[in-house]
Each structure stands twice: as structure tokens, then as C-alpha cells.
Write a structure and sequence with these properties.
Helices cover 73% and strands 0% of the residues. By secondary structure, the protein is mostly helical. It has one domain: Cytochrome c/b562 (Four Helix Bundle (Hemerythrin (Met), subunit A), Up-down Bundle). Helix 2 runs antiparallel to helix 6, helix 3 runs antiparallel to helix 5 and helix 5 packs antiparallel against helix 6.
């Protein structure tokens, strides 16, 4: 019985350590940031479509998350992280890092502009979503692998 408990504990520790190691990988970090941005865009989309009622706090949190994540995003593309962990990053990122960083900063700057003129209703959230979504689309078109 003790052997079974010890084995289970060792397996749990190994699994936890493996997950912690993977979480520190640049591919995992940037995937997590993309999920945050995607979740925030989803929140805005639900408001813009009328699936959720307008809520200023939700809008502010979503747009703030997009801004902060976009600012941090380019920091997670060191040389050597072009492959692995099911990354969708195109090799074009490392070939044109300045443009890639500029696109990320445009998203962040546009999100800051949206925050400065905080959307006040469903229609203005929809307008903000169009601007931010266009930034996402431009970057994905150039720097995301098609699957």
C-alpha cells in the first residue's frame, strides 16, 4: 500500500514539474498570451453581438488585457523557439522581427486608444472590436502558420 502511495506521489510531482517546465517555455508563454487576447476578444464580441449586456468593467478589463498582452507578446520569440510545442508562429517572424513588433505595438496602441475613449454601449464596442480585430488579422495573415 505504501509503494502505491509513493508511486502516485512521485508521478504527481513529475507531472507537476513537467507542466511547470513547459509553462516557462517561450512557445507556452506566447500561446497563453494569445489565449488571453482571444478570450478578451470573445468577451467584446459577445457584447457587440448582443449575446451579453454591455458592462463597462468587462470592456475595460478585456481591452486592458489586450493592450498589456500585445505589449508583452514580442518578448516571447527568442531565437531557437521557432518550432516545438505545437507553435503556429511563422518563420517570417524571425526574418522580420521589426515589423512583427510594430504590428504587436499597433494592437497595443489601438487598445490604449479604445480605453481612452471607453466604449459606452454595444455599438461602440462593435466599432472597437472591428479596429482591434483588424490588427489581429493583419498580424495573423503575415505571421501565423496556416493549419
Amino acid at each position: 500500500m505504501n509503494l502505491k502511495r509513493v508511486s502516485t506521489a512521485v508521478m504527481a510531482l513529475c507531472l507537476g514539474a513537467g507542466m511547470a517546465f513547459a509553462a516557462g517555455e517561450p512557445q507556452a508563454e506566447r500561446q497563453a498570451l494569445m489565449k488571453k487576447i482571444g478570450g478578451s476578444m470573445g468577451e467584446l464580441g459577445a457584447i457587440a453581438k448582443g449575446q451579453k449586456p454591455y458592462d463597462a468593467a468587462t470592456v475595460k478589463t478585456a481591452v486592458s488585457t489586450i493592450s498589456a498582452s500585445a505589449k508583452d507578446f514580442p518578448n516571447h520569440f527568442p531565437a531557437g523557439s521557432e518550432t516545438g510545442m505545437d507553435t503556429a508562429a511563422s518563420p517570417a517572424i524571425w526574418q522580420n522581427m521589426a515589423d512583427f513588433k510594430a504590428k504587436a505595438m499597433k494592437l497595443s496602441t489601438d487598445a490604449d486608444t479604445v480605453l481612452a475613449s471607453m466604449p459606452t454601449d454595444q455599438a461602440s464596442v462593435g466599432q472597437a472590436l472591428q479596429t482591434l480585430g483588424a490588427d489581429c488579422g493583419t498580424c495573423h495573415q503575415a505571421y501565423r502558420l496556416k493549419r
